[in-house]
Design brief:
0% of the residues lie in helices and 46% in strands. The chain is mainly β and 282 residues long.
């Protein structure tokens, strides 16, 4: 993450180090030159009995004000004050966190919710992939949803690898998570923000690590676009889960889509060859 006001970069490393870097940039408008002289500040941690190799950060950082949120390979989710590099709170989620947490301010502005999910990795056959809502300021768990019908697979990813979508407008009561099931399939869950109950779910015929994206029209109506590893793009009604359309792309979808106005950009990977698509949303 970059703060353009202070010129600060914030990033989590797979080496188990959380970095805050003052970039100390100087830009000469007349000479059209840029110089960077970064100074790095490092934060490391070990929860009780946590091995150093289990502190790696695989996902991106989420932030609210001075607070940074991230999870690690052991499933420790924490909030760190970037100004002091001190732990504000930390909780164990039960297994490895691979996806980026999502934040949402309450409508009255008094609270901040944090949504995150984990995978089935460290716990093996005893593992359970779970989705959580926490109070982002205190670390208090508000609810937990255990994803059904998932089992450990030593060869393929299982659980929450995709980052969530926090619903707005017509689906402001919902949060969306995609769970992948090894080499079998994947399921998109629309959960009620208040209690974590299922509003609807839809199972795709292919696994996926790609994150869903929400799109809205001027009236506030919402749709979800989800890509799967077999190259399919799905367009679903966000309030019902009804599939409205599909599009077969060439290659495998592993990346997450980006949307600008009525155009969706996504890339595929493959050997003959890979592509970047710009797709009109109508």
């Amino acid at each position: 993450l970059f703060d353009k006001i202070s010129g600060t970069m914030i990033v989590g490393g797979e080496n188990g180090v959380f970095y805050v870097a003052d970039l100390n940039t100087e830009f000469d408008y007349l000479g059209d030159t840029l110089s960077i002289n970064p100074k790095y500040y490092r934060y490391t941690w070990n929860a009780s009995k946590q091995d150093d190799k289990m502190t790696q950060i695989d996902a991106s950082i989420a932030m609210y004000g001075p607070y940074a949120y991230f999870g690690d390979k052991e499933g420790v989710l924490q909030c760190v004050d970037v100004n002091t590099l001190e732990t504000v709170w930390a909780v164990r989620t039960g297994d490895q966190i691979e996806s980026t947490a999502a934040l949402e301010m309450s409508e009255d502005g008094d609270g901040v919710a944090l949504y995150v999910g984990n995978t089935i990795e460290n716990e093996g056959k005893n593992g359970v992939a779970s989705i959580f809502r926490f109070d982002a300021l205190s670390g208090r768990k508000i609810w937990q949803f255990d994803v059904p019908d998932l089992a450990y697979d030593s060869n393929d990813p299982v659980g929450i690898y995709a980052s969530p979508v926090v619903g707005q407008e017509s689906v402001k009561e919902l949060v969306f998570f995609t769970a992948t099931d090894g080499d079998n399939d994947s399921t998109l869950y629309a959960l009620n923000k208040d209690d974590g109950s299922i509003a609807w779910s839809y199972t795709f015929t292919s696994p996926t690590e790609s994150s869903p994206v929400a799109v809205y029209n001027a009236a506030g109506d919402a749709w979800i676009v989800q890509g799967t590893s077999d190259g399919q793009l799905y367009l679903l009604e966000a309030d019902t889960g009804k599939v409205l359309d599909t599009l077969q792309l060439e290659g495998s979808l592993r990346a997450s889509p980006a949307v600008y106005r009525d155009v969706l950009i996504i890339s595929t990977t493959g050997v003959n060859p890979s592509y970047i698509y710009a797709i009109a949303l109508e």
